[in-house]
Structures are given as C-alpha cells and as structure tokens.
Amino acid sequence: MYTIKDVAKKAGVSIATVSRVLNKKDRVKEETRQKVLSVINELNYVTNFSAKALRRNCTDVIGVIVPEISNSFYGEIIKGIENKANEYDLRLIVCNGEGNLDKERGFAKFLYDQSIAGMIFIIPCMPDSELVEMKNNQKPIVLFGRNMQKYNIPSITVDNKLGAYKAVSHLCAYGYKKVAFISGEEAEHLYDRKERFEGYIEALRDCGHEVKPEYLVTAPAETINTVFAQLMAVTNPPDAVFCAYDELALGVIKTAQQMGINIPGDIGLVGFDDLRICQYTSPTLTTVKQPTYIIGSLCCEKLVYSIRQPQEGQNVNLLIPPDLIIRQSCGC
Amino acid sequence: MYTIKDVAKKAGVSIATVSRVLNKKDRVKEETRQKVLSVINELNYVTNFSAKALRRNCTDVIGVIVPEISNSFYGEIIKGIENKANEYDLRLIVCNGEGNLDKERGFAKFLYDQSIAGMIFIIPCMPDSELVEMKNNQKPIVLFGRNMQKYNIPSITVDNKLGAYKAVSHLCAYGYKKVAFISGEEAEHLYDRKERFEGYIEALRDCGHEVKPEYLVTAPAETINTVFAQLMAVTNPPDAVFCAYDELALGVIKTAQQMGINIPGDIGLVGFDDLRICQYTSPTLTTVKQPTYIIGSLCCEKLVYSIRQPQEGQNVNLLIPPDLIIRQSCGC
DNA sequence: GTGAAAGCGCTAACAT
DNA sequence: ATGTTAGCGCTTTCAC
Q: Which domains does chain A have, with CATH numbers?
C-alpha cells in the first residue's frame, strides 16, 4: 500500500504537489501533473480515506436511515440513492431504523459522530425539533416524506393528497358510491396517512358523496382480517375500499378471498405505493405509484447539492405528483 | 467535539491512560478507570473513528456485496447481517453488485482499499481464483452461496440439492408423474441452479420416473411466458413444474392464468426461495424456504469470528438444510 | 500502573 | 508553481 510520500519521491516532487493533483484544486503545471498521474497509476496508489477524513474532519460517506431495509419499497429507494452516490464517489451506509425512534436517534448520532458528509432520512419518526437540531449540527440532511420547508431543510415528498384524490375519484367515476377508507395505525410522524385521508375526503366531497364514519377504519396491518370483516358487516356495507397502503390492500385481498368476497365483482379495491407484489396478486392491484428509484436518486442529488454548496436558497421541497396505476382490483 | 486530550486533562491523567481504559486491554487501576470513565461520560466523548482507523490501519466497518438490494430476499439477509453487526459495534456498507462482475470487483477493491475490517459476499459472481486472492489480502471474507472449503474460506450454503429433492419428491409422492424443471439462465457462478437441478434428477430417479429432456427448460425470467407456453405444447406435456427460483414460478403463475391453465388443478407448481410474495399469489406458492435473516446473521457471526480470531481451523462451511413450505400451488 | 512521545497519511497555511 | 511543515486524534512502544 503506497502513500503520497512514495508517489512524491518517485515522481521527484513534494507531497504537497501530489496532494494538489489529487484534489484538483490548486493549479499544477501540466507536465508535473502528468508525471505524478503516471506514477500514481504505476504504483496503483489509492488515497487513504481515514487519513483524509481525519485531516478534513469529514468523510466521503453519506448515511441513510430507512424504516425497513427488507421491504423492497425502501430497497428501491436505497438503490436509487446508492447509484447516484457512486456517481459522485460517495459511499453509503444504510441504517435500518425500523420506525423506532430510539434506533433512529442512535443511528443518527452514530453517523454524526463519524463525521459523515450528510444524511438522508426516509420517512423519519423523529420529531421536527430533533431534525432541526440535526440540521443545525452543520451536516446537510435531506428528508423524504416530511416537508420542513419552513426550517429550510431540503426534502422530497409525494403529493399524497393528490394521489389519494386520483384513486378515489377514479372509483367514483366508475360508479362506486360507497368508498371506505382503511388506514394503518395512526402515528404522529405518518404524514402520508393523514394526507391520503384528506385526498379521500376531498374526492368524495367533489363527487357529491358523503363521508360516513362507519366507512373509516384505522387498524394495524396485522388485524386487517377482523377489521375488514367488521367493515363488511355494517348495515349498508361499502362497495369499494381505498387502502392508505398497499400492505393493507394485500391483507384485504387475502381476507376477501377467505370470506368468498369477489374483488372487483363484489367490491372495488385500490391501494397506494405500488409495491412490486401488486402485479402478482389475484386480482392484480390498482394502486397509486410512488416512483421509488427516482425518489432515492433525487434525495441523493439534493444531498450532494447541499454538501457542495452549503448555502441556503435552493428550491427546498420537491413535490412529486404520483400516478394511478390501473389494474384489475378496481374493476375499471 | 472532545478528544482524548480533553478527557485526559480533565481527568488529570495522560492520553495514554485514557486510551487504555477505552480499549480495555492493558490494565488500569480501578480508581483511575472510574475517574476517566466519568469524565468521558460527562463530556459525552466519542472516539474519532477516522483517527483510530488511520492509526490501526483498520476500520470498524464491514462490507457486503449483494446481487440486488431492491430484492427483499437480499434485503432480509442484509437485515440479518446488520443487526448482528450492530451487536458487535461494527458498521455495515452495503454494495449493490447487480450480478455484474465488474461492479463486484470495483466494490471489493474499493472496500479493500478502505481498510475494511472484512467483507461478506452474497452469491458472488467472481471466479474462485479472485476470491482466493481477496482472502490472501489478509482481510477476512465470508461467502454465502459458494463453498470454498478447500481454500479455507468460511462460507454458508443452503443444501440446494436436498431442497430440490424435497420439493420434487413431494410432488411425486402426491402422484405427479411428469415433473418439468424450469431454471433461469445458466451462469458459471450460479451453483444453486446446478445443485437444484441435481436434486430434481435424483428425486425423479428415486421415484422411478425418467428424466425427459423436453421437460428441461433453461430461460431467463423475462421470457417465461413464451417458454412456459412451449413447455405446455409438447406432446404429452408435464403435469407439474418445479422452478429453480420463485421468481420463475411467479412468471408461471401469471402465464398460466393468461392461458387459462389452472394451478394446481391442471398442473402442480413448486418454487424455491420463499420470497415474501409467495404468500400473496393466487394460488399461494409452495416453495423451498431459505432462512434469509438467519443466513445474514450467521454470515456476520462467522465474519466477526474471523476478524477476532484470524487463525484457520474453524468449521469452514456451514450447510443449511432448507424446509419445504407447503401451500396451494402443488395441490398437496 | 502510568506518562512521554513518535507517527499513521493526509491537507492546508505559509513560504519561496 | 511548488516545497516545507504543522497537526488532525489516536495507538503503541518505551521509559519510569
């Protein structure tokens, strides 16, 4: 393993010069530059990142905290981040926050202590205040799934309200009149859930349907079978269901099958997220797509921008309009 | 951000002593130790990993190269690795090799250059020789999906032959007599494919059925619809299909549905891997399960062992016997 | 049991 | 345009 010292000696220059050609900042005579470059190549020199990091007090590593790494939805986001990061010669550390505040805090602290270049939070559960604190720690951060424009934290969000609106108005346009809404468990940090609910409400209103409280269900994914059964047992049951997450819609498909309820014959169904699995269920699931890979890519792009140009003033939140992917489950 | 210098001064000892209590190797008088510890706690001191790495020429980071990070199969393995790594205070860098030799090489070189503590290769595509070279580079490595016991490289493999044998003999025991085998594209490094094929052959033989060449299909997942149609068009078509990967079985389910072929009524189907999606397809997919999380966990455990005890002589390859998960698609 | 000091490889301020 | 040098925070000999 050679060092700049070796390169310097062999090229007949000082280590400062080698450092200069390596970092491309100060100008070096073209001739010396070529000489140094050829020696670097010959020796197969690679810079020692630890030394560089120690000296600069900053690494070339960025971190990302996701809610669940084994979920392909986040896997695709990570992939988008990683490919973009590699383009910029940055390395990525992936942390599995598991939607757990303490874990998330632990990872964030760890990354921060390790002089990370910046970090990306995918649907963080930290309260706003802590995120602001992170930002004030001088390390750039980027959020996905939380708009903190007023604190000048760059972020990307999907227009959940619009997505839900598209989904529900599509159902209504096709003739469904009694659309239920099933959402996962409530949690302070799940803004997508709230926004999707708003879109649902607005679409119903705009279509001239009333919002019936008995059609509104909030329950964790594990209890979906009992919850769905209850929903279908109310007097005058719904003729369609909009699920705030595909995950829930999967549960509905399973339960409906067990109960002998036909989708879309007896009941229409639309989800949100477009998990890969939606193409393989029976019926295939109509859903609102979040462009995961692109989201990851954009998050990274924004972060790199913040790292390289640490001033404020960029277009802070990027709102992505989602598309409705029409498949079989809505019958339209 | 405090350094050991600050701690030393405040505790009234030398930096060497602080380093000693931090590293727990040399013995320190209990009293001084307590004093130092309390100052560390008070100042909220965290060690600078870059400096440590520079000095020791080795980081506390391990790397893993997977074929596809957005695939939940690998996501679960990564999760297993990460959780175990965190237990040992190691951090994890995930690289998306994409089954591409050049990418894999690039990542391996990068990680190696970065004085990584060790690395894990999940179904690597590198040839044996390069893997041996990696090992000889003094950094411990662990493989999943490749047995290189003879080169003393620790590894974990799933008993693919046994898994395939279980799957096929299950089909035969239920009365299927004409079992086809669909595998993905051939590739030198896909040992699982070959072993699963062997298990298929052996099971057929043991059940007294002959192996018919027209029942053997090798094709990439994208072409599964044409390929499956051809398979069903041979004179005396198969009554069951064993797919070397769930991915292929998913394609079969889709195609069969389009063709109006009923599974398992017209044809039995078994896959291999137990992707999460298998529970949601219709019919649900009978398959051979690979315990992904545990595999990841064990890979990491083995790596840590190699890092801490760099001698040879451990039980080098761990062979995991897989279980057959019986669902609807085989009709048994 | 503890301290002093060298030095890991690099960057950047300063000097020439 | 290039060289000299200090020092980032840590581990690890070598003294005592």
A: 4-47 (1.10.260.40), 57-158+292-320 (3.40.50.2300), 160-290 (3.40.50.2300)
